[in-house]
Design brief:
Elements (H helix, E strand, L loop, with lengths): L3 E7 L5 E2 L14 E7 L3 H7 L20 E2 L4 H7 L3 E2 L3 E6 L5 H15 L3 E5 L4 H11 L7 E5 L3 H11 L3 E5 L16 H18 L3 E5 L12 H5 L2 E6 L6 E9 L7 E7 L2 E4 L3 H5 L10 E8 L2 E13 L7 E4 L3 H14 L7 E7 L11 H13 L7 E3 L2 E2 L5 E2 L4 H10 L4 E5 H6 L8 E5 L2 H8 L1
Parallel strand pairs: 6-10, 6-11, 7-8, 7-9, 9-10, 17-18, 19-22, 22-23
Antiparallel strand pairs: 1-2, 1-3, 4-5, 11-12, 12-13, 13-14, 15-16, 16-18, 20-21
């Protein structure tokens, strides 16, 4: 009879304790749940690893970059993954319910099944009929080589993998899987951690790329223990507003490529459609003569991206002035407002300030600072910023402007999109080796100097 032991597991962070604790080391109160753990049978471990033991080899004999990339048939997904899926890799994709996780995986699975070999789609939430209805709606390829398995028992999944020998394995979702090696309920910290470990052994032992779908909490963070994020090779986050068709796929971790790439999709009746001209989609509503709107640009991965920033000021009626931002942090907005008041002479103490990055994108970096300040100034003064002017630059606390990354490519993208003028830090202009044609570059040293350009 297998030995049994009881541990207390924090449902917030996954910390295990031999005794119950009122407060966990992560700060959560009353989050411990008792779980009975049974030693894992040797047969399960051997089956998961494929019965093969890895031998130690010298570093000099290891071939760098020998992992083959598998084309998913979706260019934007390939871009985010670093050129395609790597054989034996474990990829975790998360996002809110209904955002399109299962849709993009089904499209990729259908393509791989026709070009690489059989694909096994394991679903613990939907029936085979539900998945078939979705696949018939969004897939153009034949589905003869795409196999569906509505199952939550991971031990039976291993048996199906041994029989089918798939070229690609999908688990939807990790929170529904369980192994009989543990007595804990599916979705618990212990089960998610154990199932993640077994799936990693399946992928590495059989050289099969594995895609794992994961749920998120109300705060948008990955549900379950954080150790799963450390075990997998790649972590993808699918985001977007349900009221809009735009979907953004961002890479948060990638052992085989960069983590700064994003993929853009549009949700349609026939599935997710790639957006090739992402800058154009973000600038569709930018009109000439409207106050409080400014065009800016950021560098996302290997490509420049043009965005529209909107600013709005209104009289504060009750209490303190509100500072609300969508797309940038409230701390960054508060700093920009303070510099506007101190260095540009703008009085906003009794004004509510709202800032929005159009499209629901949350750009990284600080190259949008100057455009945010210009949009707020434009709405407060009632002076429109020309729609053919692009504004980029980081604002310092002294009011000076810092150079931005990839200024040359941002200016080239602005020229391609039809902009005639780019306002940017003077140091960025001085560092350019090649300047784009048909674009006027206006180099400014400070925030006050930049605003005088539009006055």
């Amino acid at each position: 009879m297998a030995k049994r032991k009881s541990v207390f597991v924090c449902q917030e962070c996954g910390y295990e304790s031999p005794k119950w604790m009122g407060q966990c080391i992560c700060g959560a109160w009353n989050s411990f749940v008792e779980e009975v753990v049974r030693d894992e049978p040797k047969s399960v471990s051997a089956a998961a690893k494929g019965g093969r033991a890895q031998a130690a080899v010298p570093v000099s004999e290891v071939t760098a970059g020998s992992g083959r990339r598998i084309d998913t048939g979706i260019k934007e997904l390939n871009r985010v993954l670093g050129g395609g899926m790597v054989e034996g890799s474990l990829t975790l994709i998360s996002g809110e319910p209904g955002i399109g996780k299962s849709t993009i995986i089904t499209q990729a699975a259908a393509y791989i099944s026709q070009h690489e070999g059989p694909v096994l789609y394991v679903s613990g939430e939907e029936s085979a009929e539900q998945i078939k209805l979705r696949a018939d709606r969004i897939c153009r390829e034949k589905l003869d080589n795409l196999y569906l398995l509505p199952e939550t028992d991971l031990d039976k999944v291993i048996e199906a993998v041994d029989r089918l020998k798939p070229a690609f394995l999908v688990i939807d979702s990790i929170q529904t899987m369980y192994t009989e090696a543990l007595d804990a309920a599916p979705g618990s910290v212990s089960q998610v951690r154990a199932c993640g470990n077994i799936l990693m052994s399946i992928g590495k032992g059989r050289n099969i790329p594995v895609f794992i779908v994961a749920h998120v909490t109300k705060s948008g963070e990955l549900a379950g223990p954080k150790i799963v994020e450390h075990m997998v090779d790649t972590v993808l986050q699918f985001s977007g507003e349900r009221s809009q068709d735009l979907r953004i796929l961002r890479c948060l971790k990638n052992r085989f490529g960069t983590t700064s790439e994003i993929g853009a999709f549009e949700m349609r009746e026939e599935g997710l459609v790639e957006i090739e001209n992402l800058s154009g989609s973000f600038l569709e509503g930018l009109e000439d003569g409207s106050c409080g709107a400014a065009a800016t640009a950021v560098y996302e991965g290997t490509r420049p991206l043009l965005l529209e920033v909107q600013g709005l000021t209104s009289t504060t009626n009750v209490g303190f002035a509100r500072r609300t931002a969508i797309g940038i942090s409230n701390q960054r907005l508060a700093m920009i407002i303070a510099v506007l008041e101190k260095k540009a002479g703008l009085t906003l103490i009794n004004r509510d300030v709202y800032v929005n990055i159009v499209g629901g994108l949350h750009p990284e970096g600080t190259s949008t600072d100057l455009a945010v300040a210009a949009a707020i100034w434009s709405d407060e003064k009632g002076i429109p910023i020309p729609s053919d002017t692009l504004i980029i630059g980081e604002i310092g606390l002294t009011g000076d402007l810092r150079p931005v990354q990839g200024a040359e490519k941002l200016v080239s993208e602005a020229a391609r999109m039809g902009f005639r003028r780019v306002v940017l830090p003077k140091r960025s202009v001085d560092r350019m080796l090649k300047k784009a044609e048909n674009v006027e570059l206006t180099g400014v040293k400070s925030l006050a100097e930049a605003l005088r350009v539009f006055a």
